[in-house]
């Protein structure tokens, strides 16, 4: 059992937040069908930011270049993304969503938002206000 000290409060809060966010995220990931978290994250980044160099996509997703190469290869096999040479640097590759990829990520994000909305609706109004108030901080955490 973890003993509570004032200095431990931040760690315990982080532990509880990670557990709660992880559980909610697992529910939402089911909406991705056969796409895993890495697939959906890469597709969502390409939807948000547009076509990117493979290395830049890896940096934004905070994964290694070889890991992103595997992810993109899998997405390309499903015809969700396509690679093209970078016109400014022949050694680099640009990754972009296909129309099918855009449709897939849009649907998955919509389904995930629906799942979260259903869960949110089950909370009492005070809990809903607390989550709404915490949203800017959570968004900032996601950007760090």
Summarize this structure briefly.
With 144 residues, the protein is mainly alpha-helical. The protein contains 6 helices and 3 strands. The chain has a single domain (9-143), classed as Winged helix-like DNA-binding domain superfamily/Winged helix DNA-binding domain (Arc Repressor Mutant, subunit A), CATH 1.10.10.
Architecture overview:
By secondary structure, this protein is mainly alpha-helical. It has one domain (9-143): Winged helix-like DNA-binding domain superfamily/Winged helix DNA-binding domain (Arc Repressor Mutant, subunit A). 67% of the residues lie in helices and 12% in strands. Strands 1-3-2 form a three-stranded antiparallel beta sheet. Strand 2 (81-86) and strand 3 form a beta hairpin. Helix 3 (54-61) packs across helix 4 (65-77).
Query: What level of helicity do the residues show?
Result: 55-70%
CATH topology: Arc Repressor Mutant, subunit A
The number of E-state strands comes to: 3
Give the overall form.
globular
Q: Secondary-structure element sequence?
A: HHEHHEEHH
> DSSP strand (E) fraction?
5-15%
Quaternary organisation: single chain
Radius of gyration: 18 Å
Name the CATH class: Mainly Alpha
The pLDDT mean sits at 89
- Uncertain runs: none
Number of spatially distinct domains: 1
Q: From the 3D coordinates, which CATH architecture would you assign?
A: Orthogonal Bundle
Largest sheet: 3 strands, antiparallel
**CATH superfamily label:** Winged helix-like DNA-binding domain superfamily/Winged helix DNA-binding domain
Biggest sheet, strands in spatial order? 1-3-2
The end-to-end span amounts to 30 Å
Please identify the structural class as seen in this structure. Answer: mainly alpha
Separate helix tally? 6
């Amino acid at each position: 059992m973890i003993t509570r000290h004032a200095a431990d409060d931040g760690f315990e809060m982080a532990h509880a937040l990670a557990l709660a966010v992880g559980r909610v995220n697992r529910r939402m990931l089911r909406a991705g069908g056969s796409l895993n978290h890495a697939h959906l994250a890469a597709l969502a980044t390409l939807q948000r930011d547009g076509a990117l160099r493979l290395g830049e996509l890896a940096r934004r997703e905070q994964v290694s270049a070889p890991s992103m190469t595997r992810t993109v290869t899998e997405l390309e096999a499903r015809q969700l993304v396509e690679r093209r040479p970078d016109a400014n640097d022949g050694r680099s590759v640009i990754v972009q969503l296909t129309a099918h990829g855009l449709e897939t990520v849009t649907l998955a994000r919509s389904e995930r938002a629906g799942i979260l909305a259903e869960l949110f609706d089950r909370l009492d109004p005070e809990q809903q206000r607390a989550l709404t108030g915490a949203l800017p901080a959570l968004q900032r955490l996601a950007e760090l």
